[in-house]
Specification:
The structure holds two protein chains of two kinds. Chain A has three helices and four strands. By secondary structure, chain A is α+β, with helices and mostly antiparallel strands. A four-stranded antiparallel β-sheet of chain A has the order 1-4-3-2. The longest helix of chain A has 16 residues. Chain A is elongated. The radius of gyration of chain B is 16 Å and the shape is globular. Helix content of chain B is 17%, strand content 40%. The two termini of chain B are 17 Å apart. Chain B has a five-stranded antiparallel β-sheet with strand order 1-3-4-5-2, with no helix packed on it. Chain B is built from three helices and five strands. Classes of the chains: A alpha+beta, B alpha+beta.
């Protein structure tokens, strides 16, 4: 099945971003920034407490696309972070197709390039990330 | 050192280690594809490509003279130019590609754009990631 303008990609179920996930991410990324694991440090930074890595928002938006079309189909992922994510926050993602055009790159000749607008939102309605992604699909698949 | 546009960090070799990719996916709690497993040859989750993962935030902050107390990660723009798989050995090449100042609602902001190229064994860029770090004050 292909996607056309106005279509929405399936939404993945995303678990709450709890402290254990944040600690795991710090280890995975070898990120030494205490703002993700030490409340006192985060308060000194002017925050209410520790915050999740921006990687969570980027990755959840990325996997919203890759779970729908496969990692190999994705050509670009752009995400701007717009608000912090605190331990326990639940995020939801949205990906809406805004453009479909012939792929220009030789490697993707005969394919369409699909652009989706991405939004990640906290349970309180505050958007924490916005961006776009592009992926390829067979020519005419979304017609 | 003063933040300088055009500054290029030394190349670093980075192996897409299945254990680290598995830790990354465990942290997220959602696989990048249905049925995905962290074995050699599996596709790498899109969000995995960030300079922190592959080069080290401390090294980058030190060289740029940024104060971690005042910095936040602003966002990313990653182009996937060729497939990358778990087990691949890549060269990581970060460069400062933008340094700008602007007035925000709460004072001066310094925006540093870092562009990180990931190259395969043949020297071709397979992923290009541009990220923005924002420092307050």
């Amino acid at each position: 099945m292909g996607y056309g303008v106005g279509d929405r990609l399936p939404v993945p179920a995303i678990p709450a971003v709890d402290r254990m996930r944040i600690a795991y991410m710090a280890v995975s990324m070898r990120d030494p920034n205490p703002v993700h694991v030490e409340d006192e440090y985060a308060v000194a930074c002017g925050l209410p407490g520790v915050i999740a890595h921006g990687t969570f928002v980027t990755a959840y938006l990325g996997l919203t696309v890759s779970r729908a079309v496969g990692v190999a189909a994705v050509r670009r992922l752009r995400v701007d972070l717009t608000a912090p994510v605190a331990p326990g926050d639940r995020l939801s993602t949205e990906a809406v197709v805004v453009a479909v055009r012939p792929a220009g790159e030789a490697a993707d000749a005969g394919s369409e390039l699909v652009t989706v607008e991405l939004t990640a939102t906290r349970a309180d309605g505050v958007p924490v990330g916005r961006g776009t992604a592009t992926f390829v699909q067979p020519n005419g698949a979304g017609a | 050192m003063t933040v300088a546009e055009g500054y290029r960090f030394p190349d670093r070799t980075f192996t897409v280690d299945p254990v680290r990719v598995e830790e990354f996916v465990l942290a997220l709690g959602v696989e990048p594809e249905a049925g995905w497993a962290p074995r050699a040859g599996a596709p790498v989750p899109l969000g995995f490509f960030m300079y922190v993962t592959t080069y080290g935030a401390d090294a980058i902050h030190d060289v740029l003279g940024l104060d971690m107390l005042r910095t936040v990660y602003g966002g990313t723009d990653a182009e996937f130019l060729a497939p990358v798989h778990v087990g691949d050995i890549l060269t990581v090449r970060p460069q400062v590609t933008g340094v700008t100042e602007k007035e925000g609602r709460h004072g001066r902001l310094l925006l540093v754009e870092l562009t990180v190229d990931y190259l395969d064994g043949g020297g071709a860029v397979v992923v290009r990631e541009r990220s923005t770090t924002v420092q307050r004050g």
